[in-house]
Amino acid sequence: MLNVSNKVLQQLAALLLERVGLKITPDGFHSLRLALSTRMPVLGIEEPERYLQRLTGVGGEEELRSLLPLVTVGHTEFFRDAKQFRALEKSVLPDLLARARREMRKVSIWSAGCATGEEPYSMAMVLAELGALSVEVDLWATDLNLAAVEAARQGRFSTRRSISIQQERLARFFRPVEDGHEALPALREYIRFDGQNLAVPVFDKVALNSLDLILCRNVIIYFDLPTIRGLMDRFLSALRPGGLLFLGYSESLFKVYDRFEMIEVDGAFVYRRPPSDKGYRPPPLRIHPYPGASSEQQARASEPEPFSPAVYARPAVELAQGARPRASTADSAATRGAGALSSAFPAVRPLPAASTPAQASGAQPPATTKTHDLGRPRVTVELPAVSLADAVRTRPTVELPAVSAPARTVTGEIPAATAWPKLLPPAERLAMAVRKMTQGDFPAAIQGVQRLLVDEPSDLDALLTLGNLYSLTGRITEAREAFAQAIQREPLCVEARVFGGVAALQAGELREARSELGKALFLEPTLAIGHYLLAQVQERSQDAEAARRSYRNAIAQLRFPQRTLAGHYPEMLDSAEAISRAARYALAALEEQPPH
Questions:
Q1: Percent of the residues in the chain that have a pLDDT greater than 70, as a whole number
Q2: Is the distance from CB of 185 to CB of 216 less than 8 angstroms?
Q3: What Rg do the C-alpha atoms of the chain give, in angstroms?
Q4: Closest Cα partner for 282 from 265, 303, 261, 298?
Q5: pLDDT tens by residue, 146-157
Q6: Given this model, what pLDDT does residue 186 score?
Q7: What DSSP string describes 164-233?
Q8: Which of 8, 264, 527, 577 is buried most, with the most CB atoms less than 10 Å from its CB?
Q9: What burial letters (b/e) apply to 29-61, b meaning 16+ CB within 10 Å?
């Protein structure tokens, strides 16, 4: 790796803090070295000191913007997002292995935007623990930063970066080296590393309908809407029907892309390519057919779609007794796969059947029996039919509970009227809180977002919205804390700077507002709303000439596509037409004022 003195790294870190507000401690200097190793050869610069001069000289801002996405490569960790890895370990990967073995093929997984390799190595450890051999897995890990890819291929991690790996896993899959740990060759064999730009129009290294699983977490937050939609089109084509896409908890396709369907797996919300052998698209979180459904419907339900809740349903009686589902002969054969597994690895857990024989034949379960979807009781068993005609009618799904019969909790209790439903995806729960916000019910909106963040602590959209709610209700200190948390999670989060500037403006802290909005515009110079808000700050500061320039800049940037900001703020200008109209009106008012 490139040899860079601590003095240069400290100067570069100070420059990033000043220009962007990105704070990098000495523990993060590894990411700076990786970024320099990538950008310096592009410019034909060999000395780090000369590159630093380039950054601080004429035209240095553009190069600093090119450097920024590479700097944040260090912000990753092993087994990031516990809910998602629990779903991968308990349900998704065992099912993928079982199906791939039945079809006598490899499990195909793509870790897109793998940075320095923590994610694919985490996946490899889980696969090995599930009994998968490296020859049964095609785990492809890619990143735009070739220096990061090479570092990932070596598999060496400092003690600080490997702190989230359990000691048992460290002892099994790594060996101690100076200042850290190195992945054993047997673990590295599971992964093939490569460079890949996700923004290219065609993935020439990926065959259509070939992948079982794509992980692209905490990547698309840096993309604009057209790039995200194009990338989702390519991901959809690359996945097999029924294949899964994992995004970061701070990322959502809500109102962005609708060709994936959202499902819940062990508490994690993930996206699925709709299966191609169905003539309809099932709704998210779909449950089993209700008692009284036709025999044709029940027969169809006995063959669950890939990654449907039926695949992961556990019989309630067995769960209550602590018993594990018994594997069938076919399942056992599928588990053995193409060859015998090493005794050092546990066998892949067989998946339970989706329905009992009685259910498959159309028989109704006893009234006291409750089947489970993702561990929750079926509401329909507790709502008996009132007539013969009603018994054969399809029941409403749990997403649309009857007004006269409020949904019950797992324990059978009716929640309070102020309770926020947990069955809905995070984006829909946030939308409910936003509706409260637009209605002026700020306490209820704050309560809803706070409860969402308890369940989904990594939801960046919710965290930004909470900061805005605090700002609107005069809780400026708490608003600052919320935006600081957002920046800690996503150091290049433009929205946190924009909304932080708005909060400071509301509090009358004009210098802080100018600083925050300036950092936002450094990160995204074409953001028209950022220029408009900066003009508002300058106008409040009695700097009419600067305000005129910023209003003109806001209008000029509208020739570029404008993206929707994450987070929600009521009455924020959110269309090019609205921004243009407001900026032209304000500019005309300023032009009528005599110069000072």
A1: 73
A2: no
A3: 27
A4: 261
A5: 878 888 999 999
A6: 96
A7: TS-HHHHHHHEEEETTEEEE-HHHHTTEEEEE--TTSS--TTS-TT-EEEEEE-S-GGGS-HHHHHHHHH
A8: 527
A9: bbbbbbbbbbbbeeeebeebeebbebbeeeebe
